[in-house]
Amino acid sequence: MAWILLVVAGLLEVVWAYFMKVSDGFSKLTPSILTILFMIASFALLSYAMKTLPLGTAYTVWTGIGAVGSFAVGIFFLGEPASAMRMLAAVLIISGLILMKLSSS
Q: How many CB atoms lie within 10 A of CB 9?
């Protein structure tokens, strides 16, 4: 159950990162409020997952999901570049996440 909560927390990190971007420096009210709400939900689920998962594993997986997910959202929804170097970086992050999962008991 902790792993499911951790994945959901990571996905919520992607959502709040997107809303933070479209809030235009917190100058737009609705995206700013959504950023804060999704941040709280993401942190709450991360905290709950950390009750049973090691800190290093939980935090690394949470930030990795957020990083790769935000990278994908940037490419597919915000028109950011998908250069070979950026794609390789995302693959390396995903590889690290897989290794973290495999190394945890």
A: 24
Residue 98, both tokens? 């897989």
Cα-based distances in Å from 41 to 8, 58, 89, 96: 10, 16, 27, 25
pTM: 0.89
20 contact partners, CB below 8 Å, separation of at least 6 = 26, 31, 35
Long-range contacts of 69-77 (CB under 8 A, 24+ apart): 69/10, 69/11, 69/13, 69/14, 69/17, 70/13, 70/14, 70/17, 70/18, 72/14, 73/14, 73/17, 73/18, 77/18
pLDDT reported for residue 102: 87
Q: Which residues contact 15 (CB under 8 A, 6 or more apart)?
A: 34, 38, 42
Say whether pLDDT at 28 is over 70: yes
Identify the pLDDT of residue 104.
76
Number of domains composing the chain: 1
**For residue 79, what are the domain limits?**
2-103
